[in-house]
Each structure stands twice: as structure tokens, then as C-alpha cells.
Amino acid sequence: MAGPLDGLKVLDIATVIAGPFAASLFADYGADVTKVELPGKGDPIRDFPPFKDGKSLWWKVANRSKDLVSLDLRKERGRAIFKEMIAGYDVLIENFRPGTLDGWGLSREVLWAIQPRLVILRITGFGQDGPYADRPGFARVFEAMSGLTYITGHPDREPLHMAYPLADPIGGVFGVAGALAALWRIARNPAAKGEEIDLSMTEATFRLLDVLPVEYEQLGEVRERCGNGNLYSAPANVYRTRDGKYVSLAGSTQAIFLANLRAIGREDLAADPRFSSNSMRVRNGAAIDAIFRDWVAAHGSAEVISAFAEAGGAIAPVYSSEDIARDPHFRARRAIVPVPDRDFGTVGMPCVVPRFPQSPTGIRHSAGELGEDNARVYGALGYSEEDLARLREEGVI
């Protein structure tokens, strides 16, 4: 189960979520990923809940399939070891504030002098330049300033953040895409130099919103919050069933709208001029929404899902993590896989996405202890046990 990136080597010196998430995707796809942490402290995500027996479960997932070493890049000896390491890697992932590595004597010129084809993925809140370049970055900051939070929630209430730092993995995905694009350029040309990628997390989140900037530029319109509905199709909402469950309805195409009508036994509404097209349904959204809301409220969740499935309509139960774990489709697809873990035997994690039938992938193990691979990784560079003991005493590893 080597995966399509078998043989690629990635060095992850980032912390918390975005950069390590990008690195974990590389590992998912078969790359050999080494994560570097500060001795004695480690990545702050080690202290993120949820915990079991004092162990962060988030840590175990976020840094799965990586080799773990400790190294203090703030120390001259640590930087010397880092330079030895970087010669053997294809990608470096970092999320320090702009100029931090330069200040430590690890500028791109220095790194490229050692490894000329190195791809350096720099992940920051606002990019390597601009008025906000030195500001700290967190998912809520990216979400708030990208416009995502502004359009999330009900129109008569405050904007909402999700109960999860969504912008972080979004940035991680863009980081992997950018690094792979750079690697493709380098692979096609044996004489090609490396690449320095400037990934702004705020821009990555903003990129997802696609039509919002042109909507404002060309029409002078600002997208506003509309609860669980939307401004581009109708009916579309979250409804409560008779047994207290929630379902989410979609139907932006005419064919699906007609199927949704069959599901609730109201094919007659297809002839109503108010609902004759998607644009007309959006204009008369409150009326068509009320019809579906009342029908769903009068039926149990199982009956609702069955009726829409039989009619070919588009409705889905609003799942919790428990629902996902029990769902037969997720189970058949093995969307949650048991991963070897030293503390708990196995821990369940999301599967590798997407799937590669010609080069199958797998999750090797959960993330372990700080510096647990020091002996093997540094041993490969020629460091003896005595060398490592001395480096530990000096606080270098």
C-alpha cells in the first residue's frame, strides 16, 4: 500500500493544524513524512482536547503516518543538523511568521544551495507580504476576514463560526495542491530549480467563496446570511421531522425538483407558475419552503428518507459523528478505518481521500511520542547513540 507518492520525502516543521494537515495528506498518499517538534514541548496540538487517559486524540489523527523527531532550530547546532536533513527531502512545510527562518540563517537561498530542487511551502495567515503579513493566524481569523463567517448564520442573529476550525484543513488542501503543482514542474525539467510557495490561509478560505467578489463587483450586491436556506436554489433548507430528527433538502435542478415533488406526493405543483423554474422558485421561496417543511414535520425521519430515496429526490439526514459511525454506507466503504496505536491498540480515523485503485494507500499508524524516531532518523545521518545523548543534554533534540 505504498501510494502514488511513494518515494517522495516531506519535512514538516509546522505546528497545530494547517501545515501538519497538509503533511498528513502527503503521508496519506504514500510520501515519507518526518515531523520536527521543539524538544520538551512539542507541537501545541498535543495539548488539544479531546483526551483519553491524558493523551490527545486530535494529535493522534492530525499527525498520523509521520516519523517524529525533536530538534531546536533556534540553536546553532540544531540548524546545522537541519541542514544535513534537508538535503534528503523534496518538500519543506513551515508556518512561521514571515522572515523567521531567514533570521535563523535558513533562507531559501541557503536551503536551495543544499537542495536546489526543494519545494518550500510557506503557510501564513495573510501571506509573505502586505500590511497584515506579520499578524498571527488562526482559523477564526481566516474565516472572519475571508467573508465565510459573514454569510454563515441566520439573518437576524450574529454571524456564526463552525464548531471546528474549518479554514485550517482548507488551507492544508491548497498547500498540497500547490506543492504538487510545483513538483510537477520540477519533474518535467531535470534542470528546474525549486519553488517557494506563498500560501495565505485567508486567501485560501476566500477562494472557496468563488462568486462572492464578482457578485459585489458587477452587481454591487453583498451576500448576506440566510440561515439554512440559500440564495441560488429553492426549496433548500433544514427541516425537523415528526420524531425530532433533522433532514437537509437540496434541489437546484429541475429534474431533482420534480423528484422531490414526487416524494411528498405533490406532482401537481409542477404546473404552478410560481415554481416553474429555479429562478421562479427562488423568487417564491417562502411559499415552496413552507410546503416541504409542513410535509416533513408530519412524517418520521425514516419515512422521509425512504420516500425521497424511492422517488429519486435529494434529501439527507443531518448526521452526528455517531450516526456516521453506524451508517451502512460509511461502514461498507470503510470511511472510518482502525489505525494502529501504541496506547489504545487501534483508533478510528477518516480514511484516505481520494482513493487510488492502481496505487492503494493506507494509514500506517497514529501519531506517537515526541522524538520517538530520533534514533532512527538521526542515526541514518551518522549520529551515534553517544552523539544523541549529548544533543539531548544540550537541549538540541
Task: Please describe the topology of this protein.
Blueprint: E1 9-12, H1 18-28, E2 32-37, E3 51-52, E4 55-56, H2 57-62, E5 66-70, H3 76-86, E6 91-94, H4 100-103, H5 108-114, E7 119-124, H6 139-146, H7 167-188, E8 195-200, H8 201-207, H9 212-219, E9 238-240, E10 246-249, H10 254-263, H11 278-283, H12 285-297, H13 301-311, E11 315-317, H14 321-326, H15 328-333, E12 336-341, E13 345-350, H16 374-379, H17 385-393
Parallel strand pairs: 1-2, 1-6, 2-5, 6-7, 7-8
Antiparallel strand pairs: 3-4, 9-10, 10-11, 12-13
Helix pairs in contact: 1-7, 6-8, 7-8, 10-13
Low-confidence stretches: none
CATH structural class of the largest domain? Alpha Beta
Mean pLDDT: 97
What is the radius of gyration computed over CA atoms, rounded to a whole number of angstroms? 25 Å
Counted by DSSP, the helix tally is: 17
CATH topology of the largest domain: Rossmann fold
> At CATH's second level, what is the architecture of the largest domain?
3-Layer(aba) Sandwich
Structural class: alpha/beta
* Number of E strands: 13
Instruction: Domain count, please report it.
Output: 2
Strand content: 5-15%
The spatial strand order of the largest sheet comes to 5-2-1-6-7-8
